[in-house]
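Lab notebook, bench 4. Still working through the backlog of constructs that have no structural model yet. Next entry is a single chain of 104 residues. Request: give me the structure tokens for it.
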Amino acid sequence: MNTRLITFLALLLASVCGASVACAEALSVTDSVEHVASKETLVNLNAANVEQLMTLPGIGKSKAEAIVAYREAEGPFNTVDDLLEVKGIGKKLLAKLSASVEVR
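Model written out:
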């Protein structure tokens, strides 16, 4: 009887470990898909309107309007770092934004 219990527990442990490996593999695939999806959802500083810019971390209505006004006055952004020229955007805010924006 003890042999049956040990066999059962061994099989149970093996199935749980196998499920964990499958879950881990599924998680890594999901993480990769999310990473790709996040790249596709970057906000283009040269095309975004005020509402789209307001979805960015640390950007409210006034900063979004300042970004659009700067773009209209100075022309398109050449790099994400050009945001430093916009009133109200400093290095700390730029660091928060850099993963969410792009220039095309």
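Notes after review: DSSP finds four helices and two strands in the chain. The longest strand covers residues 43-44. Flag for follow-up if needed.
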